[in-house]
Amino acid sequence: MRLSFRTRHPWPVFLIRRLGRFVVSLAVVVTASFAMVHALPGDPVRGALGLMAPPETIAATRERLGLNDPLWRQYLDYLWNLLHLDLGTSLETQTPVGEKMAQLVPATLQLGLTAFVVCLAVAIPVGLLLGIATRDGRGRGLHFGFGGVTGLALSVPDYLVAVGLVFVFAVSLEALPVAGLSGPASFVLPVTALVVGPAAYLARIVRAETQRVLGEDYIRAARAKRLPARLIYLRHALPNTLTPTLTVSGMILASMVAGTVLVENVFAWPGVGAELVHSVLAKDYPVVQAVALFFGAGILLINLAVDIAIAVIDPRSTIKES
Amino acid sequence: MVRNRPFRVSVAVLCSTVALAACSNGGSTGSSSGDDYADGGSLTIAIDSDPGALDPQRSVNGVNKMMAVFAYDTPVKLLDSGEVAPSVVKSWTGEGTSYTLTVREGVTCSDGSPMDAQTVADNINYVAAEGNGSPMRGAAVPADATATADNAAGTVAVKLKEGAPFFFQNLAELPLVCSSAIKNRDSLKAASAGSGPFVLSDVRAGNQYTYTRRDGYAWGPNGASTAEKGMPAKVTFKLVTSATTTANLLLSKGVNISYLSGADTQRLKAAKVFSDGGSIIGDELTFNQAAGLPTADVNVRRALVGALDMKELAQVSTGGLGQAANGLLTDPKICSGDTVTPNKPAYDAAAAAALLDQAGWPAAGGGARAKDGKPLEVAFVYDNEDTTTAATAEYIGQKWTALGVKVDLKGQSFNARSDVVFGGKGPWTATLIGLGVSNPATLVPFFSGATPAQGGINYGSMHNDVYDSSIKAAQAKSGTGGCADWNAGEGALIKDADITPISVSPYLYWGNGAKFDVVARVLEPTSLRVLR
Amino acid sequence: MSWSRTRHHLLSPLGVVTVVLLLLLVATAVVAPLLLGDRATEIAGGALQAGPSVAHPFGTDALGRDVLARTLVATRLSLVLALLVVGIGVACGLIIGTVPVVLGRRAGRAVVAGLNLMVAFPGLLLALFLAMIFGVGARGAVLSMAIAFAPSFARLTHTTASGVANADYVSAARLLRVPRWRILTRHVVPNISEPLVVNATSQVGAALLSISALSYIGFGVQPPQYDWGRMLADGLPAIYTNPAAALAPSIMIVVAGLAFVLAGELLTQVLGGSQHGHLRIPSLRSPRRDPAPAETPPPGDEVLRLERLTVTVPGETAPFSPVVDVSMRLRRGEIVGLVGESGSGKSLTAMAAAQLTSYPNVAEADVHRIKGNELRRMRPRDRERLLGTSLAMVFQDPMSSLNPTLKVGRQLAEVAETHERLGRRDAWRRAVDRLSAVLITDPEARAKQYPMAFSGGMRQRASIAMGLMAQPALIVADEPTTALDVTVQKEVLGLLRRISRETGAAVLLISHDIAVVAENASRVLVMYAGRVVEELPVSGLAEAAHPYTRALIASIPDMSTDRSRPLANIPGRPPHASDLPLGCAFAPRCGRADDRCRQARPELADSGGGGAVACWHPLLPALESEA
To answer: What mean pLDDT do residues B395-424 have?
Structure first.
């Protein structure tokens, strides 16, 4: 039997398909954000020029900025500029959006990635340990307590956590910086605010997955081999919990990026998130589009990375994909 | 949203368009002696929105203006007394359509070039030229101005086609850029080129902006120089959007100076944080008088205003920190005087109801008012980005509902609301607007002349005969000489409930580890002192 | 889902807390607007943003209205909005998610691709956009959040539904040309509803948080309406001057969110049937009637000795023992079959014999010796070592008993690494050697592969090879061929026989198929309802004494002595171990049963010919001829 190219070369096929999907998705995000930002109410030009500006000045400015062109033309111009890495000029502040993004993106990435790593570093061990401790219905009190604590963590909005943390640790105890990006200490509170909910969610997933995996036949087989507990949990159970864990982690990172919108505001973090709400309100097309592109591309990249990571860790998935 | 935007574009352009009369100073005066000052220190000032493009003559953004005074001198400066004080221009003469400015010798730009008469003239001509699209055209500099310099004599002659009653006061709004920058505007995007006491040294767009002290600057107000003890060597403007966070930072000295209003100021006050400033007018209630709307009827408008307890409403609209307004102008007022008390419909819910009955909107069963089967409906649009504005709108809505009016409260973003009221995008009957200005002349196009549909900004299709005749008389007079007429016009607007000012609240800059003066609502850069 | 189980869950701490919280929320949502509606909108002059007082326990808001009353009244709107979001989101998600299942593969793929794209679009951004486009307010917030929610729900629905769609009954319905919508409503939706209900419930909490976040940033509910998020938007900026005003809605959001998270968890337990039962299982063993067996030194060739093994499991209401008083002895090189219907306790016996009884089940035995060592008296480490080297397990499903994420060679090698302290390379070499011993071709390459590259028979041989990594004296094979094709079955059983012959390992062969046992074992233990009812040599099967054994044999066509008789079936079902009849457990299905059978349980007794039987009326050949 002649094997198909797919079967012989699962990796290139997988990567090409996956990258293709990435490009298409990105195109959709770009197009959708363009379409939606133009559907927003309000006139950014009037906002930028002020209430005193007479209508003809507003009309002239709109004409100059190409905002009176047909939508398809504006779209093509936008794409053309995007291909030349030109994100345009903010209607509100008259500054190049690219420069601003170059300032803000690193801060958001630092915050988001730190939070992500902390989230994984906390949730996976906790979930794993709890999964082990509550396997086969053991430790019911522990299980209930864990469910309660993580349920509570899931139910507190991140902006409330942020405000509460500042209240206690920065203002009352004066133990940590109030706001801003200044040094390692300044990461503690915003990262905590971002991590609490997602980490609780992930820990629940990991615990449930661990419990599921520990009930699998291959774990019974490993126990039949009389392997030490360490090997059973770390070598046999953990890798099998990783596929769903990674999938959820991807979603979590995406939601954390969204969480930055409110948390950055509370901590005066010089990032993209704080810009999002404001630019949508001001209907500042180029800024909204740049922010949407950043978040959209970020989420898509995360998904891509997760899929590749799963393919590396779980040998079943590349084949499944192709 | 926790957002605090005192520098909103629309207001900022207008409210700083200047003054003669007294300006109250709500802050305490510095009692520190030179011993308390630290040399070579640095200060951080919080800003609540991004200044955007830094060319000072191409932006009307309030934050931009606040920062611009650090790097750019103006021809003259306004004082708290309302007087115009010399700055780059040391003396001036003229009125009507012809003015002469004499430029101080020895003023230099940060690039070393002289800030001479020619440069001042070039600045005036640049802003006045229509093709340059400066939003300051018509505000800081009359649109029809032409300036000619005599460098040898150090004088600039400015000719106008029409008279401008507040020419010198408006000039205090014009940041002067260096001659090199007039030719190369792009150089102003990431650096400064002015004769001010500081130089923009670092730009992190959307995050922070750093200014460094200029040595040898000695032409500040009353000869203030940068050699004073305690002058900061570095001033950083840092973007902090949340007011609560700003207050936290001020208290922990993460920020040294910031403008702040609202509930958080109570904490600062309790912590005895230094403050200086004045007061600012808040929202104003105004109506759409387009034909066919119930509010085209003056009795309906007066009834709607008369149903409101202004004292209580002033508390709501300032979070309990301010008081009822007594006029349309904000500090520093060009024309002082109480135009509200004699004109505003008195608070009397019963009288308001009677007035509505009289206007043909009787209350039917259940209290709902209607005329010819058409209910009395008010589409009340407001800017929901500001929590106190939202509270004010809700209060008014509740009172009107009690009166039998069908109120449709519509909170929108500032831009969307502006587009409805000024751009004709959607129906509206009443709105809260912030036209806080110091100069009564600036108000004219809002209350008379062309409607937006006709190419003007008379957003409410208003026509008030008394106002029109009063301002005609006022415009013929120069400076404060026309104040009686300006006030009469303003009174007419309030009497017909075309617009009703609601409240004034403190306008304060707060400082922790720093001292400063706020002069005519401007944070004076040469007054900054770093405390030990 | 039985009522007793539901009640059991509702009375658990989780159940009580959840139900109380939900009831409180619903009661508040229903009652508060009626009782406090006026108070919540009443403007108390002169007390703007006041702190807590007797009249206003949580202070007043920016208009001087009572925060507590407003918080309680806002419960209704907050909950209604969250439920609407989930309702609309679920409805859209169901449509998008299930339709491709019945529309066929191509349409399905297109929808899935679309879903993947939608999930990729930043949810918050989408919600902000839509809220502005729909017009800020409660309606816009609900629609935008519902649309932002729908894709993820659709994906979940689709994943669950496609699992069901591949199920046999749906395929059968398709073959029968049942209309597609009917397949959807009759077969797909009912079968995916449980996980979706669970998910939707926990999503209500998430929706509540999202809507309040939207209101908080000013894109949600607008005055004069108010929800908790809206109240937070007003209260949170003043948190340092009047914290009480922000505290009240915060508490409610957290409590409501928690209630729905817990409700989701509770539903998972009630619907999903999670592990539950009594924490402590008391010993249910019958008191010993005989004196303890003399501690005679075991014969040299004894490999496994079990005396009076009882396995107890937690029941729904009370613990019970699916395995009672099972005794057995295996010698070197002997293959002993353990047969019985499913539920007879044979697998539990096998697991207990291998000391693999897992929590919360408890196995107890008077004697449990392996290679002459009494396990209960050994130190844990020695015991693990002994079991690791001399006992091998072969499980029923080779597809699931090999770890999918580890290379086959690795899974073999680790046994030698752990118990014999072999180096990695030596252990690997042995693994390759053992793979070749179980006739896996090209073992070097195969060892480097993952289990998914192995066929079912190869996997089972690999599991046997895994058992051969040490020098097993006992192989416990629990239904080793049930999941395999007939030809492969023969291969695997042949392999077991060969290993037993060559290495002298004893094999405990568990099977529901007496034919398999008859062909491979030398002795047979027949289990029924947790007890051994007959023990006999394979050669004696045709003359088995117990009616049940006879019935088992009769059910095999090719073993039947008389082919002219119709295929014998055993009427009825075996009783559940928690509900055993008083007398002989087989009596209700036995043609020979009489009152004695129904009153008293027969003990296992010598039946002659090297066998034993537990029956009042054994089919002894001699007695039969007498009768």
So the answer is: 91
With 0-12 / 13-18 / 19 or more C-beta atoms within 10 angstroms meaning exposed / middle / buried, residue B128 is buried
Three-point CA angle C361, C363, C369, nearest 5°: 150
Place of tokens 């408008």: B301
Q: Identify the pLDDT of residue C490.
A: 86
- For the segment A168-188, the average pLDDT, to the nearest whole number, is 88
Give the whole-angstrom CA distance, residue B497 versus residue B290. Answer: 14
Neighbours of B271 (CB within 10 A): 12
Write out chain B residues lying below 8 Å of A178, CB-based: 245, 248-249, 251-252, 254
Annotate B101-125 with DSSP letters as a single string.
Answer: EEEPTT-B-TTS-B--HHHHHHHHH
- What backbone torsions phi and psi does residue B479 show, to the nearest 5 degrees? 55, -140
Give residue C166's Cα distance to chain centre: 21
Q: Where are the alpha helices (DSSP H) in C166-188?
A: 168-175, 180-182
Mean of pLDDT values over B429-442: 87
Phi, psi (deg, nearest 5) at residue C276: -155, 175
**Spans of chain C below 70 pLDDT:** 1-2, 45-46, 100-102, 104-105, 119-120, 163, 165-167, 272-298, 557-570, 620-627
Q: Which DSSP string do the residues of B290-331 spell out, in sequence order? A: -TTSGGGSHHHHHHHHHTS-HHHHHHHHTTTS-EE-SSSB-S
The residue of chain C with its CA nearest to that of B411 is C222
Q: What is the pTM of this model?
A: 0.85
Q: Which chain A residues are closer than 8 Å to B135 by Cβ?
A: 49-50, 53
Helix and strand tally (H, E) in chain B? Answer: 15, 25
How many H helices and E strands in chain A? 15, 0
Which residues from chain A sit within 8 angstroms of residue B445, using beta carbons? 52, 54
pLDDT band at B30 (very low <50, low <70, confident <90, very high): very low
What lies within 8 Å, CB to CB, of C584 at 6+ separation is C590, C593, C597, C598, C600, C601, C602, C614, C615, C616
Answer whether B416 touches A (CB < 8 Å): yes
Range 322-381 of B in CB contact (< 8 A) with A: none
Of all residues in chain B, the percent with pLDDT exceeding 70 is 93
B37-85: pLDDT as tens digits: 888 899 999 998 888 888 999 887 889 999 999 999 999 998 776 678 9
Rounded to a whole number of angstroms, the distance from the CA of B292 to the nearest CA of chain A is 24
